[in-house]
Amino acid sequence: MENVKLEKNLTGTKLANPVFSQKHSPYYSIDMELKKGCAGKSANIESVDLLFDETRIEAQLLVMNALNKYFDWNSATKDNIILTIGKIIDGLLSNRDIFQNLSELKNVDDYTFEHSINVCVLSLVIGICMDYSIDKLEEIGAGAILHDIGKLRISREILKKPSILTDDEFDEIKKHTIYGYQILKDNSNISPVAAYIALSHHERYDGSGYPMGLEGDNINKFARIVAVADVFDALFSDRVYRKKLHPREIIEYFTKTGSHYFDSEVVDKFVEMVIMYPTGTNVVLSTGERGVVVSNNRGFPLSPVVRIKCDGNNNKFKRFYNNYYEINLADNSDVFIDKVCDIG
Ligand SMILES: [Fe+2]
After folding, report:
1. I need a labelling partner for 292 at 20 to 30 A (CA). Which of 43, 60, 94, 330 fits?
2. Looking at the domain 95-273, which fold is it?
3. pLDDT digits over 130-164, tens only?
4. Which residue ranges make up each domain of the chain?
5. Are strands 337-341 and 325-328 parallel, antiparallel or unpaired?
6. How far is the CA of 44 from the centre of ligand 1 (A)?
């Protein structure tokens, strides 16, 4: 029964009935585009089924989350980039073989599913900033969303082990690159580039990666993009065996190791676009003052503009107009964000 429904969905019309229709959704403009594209096509029962397709809905929610979490858009770039990413990812999810692989991955490991979506969004933003054509972006997107698909062939015990892996277990995990290549390489419905990305996303620029220990420009260019996105999202995620790193540590990792492990052109583009503290994040500054992030400075992911509402003793300001003041951390290098807090 499940299979019948899945099969029906896979052959359904691409977002004929948009999942996101609220004006506040970043997908709003995409919905409008797709509606225009679908005008004249009869509404069919399959489009209604799409609403119940949990994997597809979850994937699209995760795309929005990743966009909101990792990027701060000014009005000039927002619409173009979000529209492009939305169209490409909708296209990927409408590819029967890509969607089926992703659904299987979700069944095995929710974390890897979410991570794959994040890596896809991050890789596409980097690719867009590097001025790749839509055709190339589609290849990057396919490889990014399927980069860990080889984990389908890793035993669940190893994949979900809540502690540090033994050397043998780590050797087995490393094989997900080769398994991924094997799964994708003969699939005529998926770009062969995706197979190379799955194979090479753990290669490192200095030759210290795996499975082949390739160096520098011998590593597929798109795999070098996915490598940065992959490591970034992994470091920014809580795992059972370790907490996510502090944003400062993550950016330092990339800026200090960038030219050793990664393609520095990719790292530069990435640091230029990514943010670590989305608007609305409650933070405590090194001065002890508490406030909320109100905007970000492009190229300075650790230094947003913060609206300060409480002093170091947690007393609300009364002396400022509106009872707050704003500090642009990009202009105040001696003040930095100490930590994120749940309550403002
Ligand atoms: Fe991987």
Report:
1. 60
2. Hypothetical protein af1432 (1.10.3210)
3. 999 999 999 999 999 999 999 999 999 999 888 88
4. 95-273, 282-341
5. unpaired
6. 39
